[in-house]
Amino acid sequence: MTVLSLFSGAGGLDLGFKQAGHKILWANDIDSYAVETYKKNIGNHIIKADIKEIDIDSLPKTDIVIGGFPCQGFSQANRFRNIEDERNHLYKFFYLTISKKQPKFFVAENVKGILSLAKGKIIKQIEQDFADAGYVVSVNVVNMADYGVPETRQRVIILGQQKQFGPSMIIGLPPKTNSKDGKLLPKWRTIKEAIDRYPDPDSENEYLNHIYSKYKVIVRDYTAHRKTDPNKPSPTILARGNGGGGVCAIPHYNGKRRLTIRESAAIQTFPDDFEFYGPMGSCYRQIGNAVPPLFAFQLAKCFTELENESSISI
């Protein structure tokens, strides 16, 4: 299927869809370093622009719209949020894109916290907005560790399909491949399994981006300062986390240093030949903001299989 990508970042979600055989016609992000990373690894169809400057009518019509809209305007204090609220221009752009372009399907990714904003009223309003735009919607909480990603990363995946396909969802999440207890499925992958193969970054090596932040490791019960257990999945790879808005890489399980950019990318399931561009802080942020390509690929395959089903006219 053809794909239009919004708020693409470095392209984790896009990479999975590309690997599954879909064709991305257009993508956008405002961050210059993320756009450079995307261009060098995925394609030149991405543009760097503020969404306020983009004419939605000029965008290509595609089968699927994908993206993780930021949610600055969705605050608990903003109980009477409406789509015209200026603080919601990012969400509004996503909403108007699907409203005007009417893709057959859309995929929206967001943080788990969006479910609890205003005691659940925000996500209900979002569902209603998408329904008013002509879509059947499902809201799903996903732990990426259940899909082979060596990381306990929980995210909300919102799936939408045009109402012409009926009142019931014909598209859903892919089947889980791993489990915490390992009884019915293989156990969650551990951080050690994911990165133990990498050499000491202080020694000469040929791995891309195998450098790390010198920010001191001080173990305490706070975001990226918690001790890392080698026999469990990694904690969530962060886009920020030092309390001041900057990026704080997860500590390596040896307790002596922080994860390298390459190790962080491997935990997020980016391939070793995927190179990140920009300052170290930007590279860490690009990785922390991304959807793991492995999960994106499994999700994208669901659309491939749907398109191949002779009983459904897509």
Topology (elements, then pairings):
Elements: E1 2-6, H1 12-19, E2 23-29, H2 32-41, E3 46-48, E4 64-67, H3 89-101, E5 105-111, H4 121-132, E6 135-143, E7 154-162, H5 191-195, H6 261-267, H7 280-289, H8 293-308
Parallel strand pairs: 1-2, 1-4, 2-3, 4-5
Antiparallel strand pairs: 5-7, 6-7
What would your notes on this structure say?
By secondary structure, the chain is an alpha/beta fold. It has a domain of 188 residues: Vaccinia Virus protein VP39 (Rossmann fold, 3-Layer(aba) Sandwich). The protein has eight helices and seven strands. Strands 3-2-1-4-5-7-6 form a seven-stranded mixed β-sheet, with helices on both faces. Strand 4, helix 3 and strand 5 form a beta-alpha-beta unit. Helix 1 packs across helix 8. The N and C termini lie close together (9 Å). About 2% of the residues have low confidence.
Which descriptors would you attach to this protein?
Rossmann fold; seven-stranded mixed β-sheet; alpha/beta; 314 residues
Task: Please sum up the structure shown.
This protein has 314 residues and is an alpha/beta fold. The protein contains eight helices and seven strands.
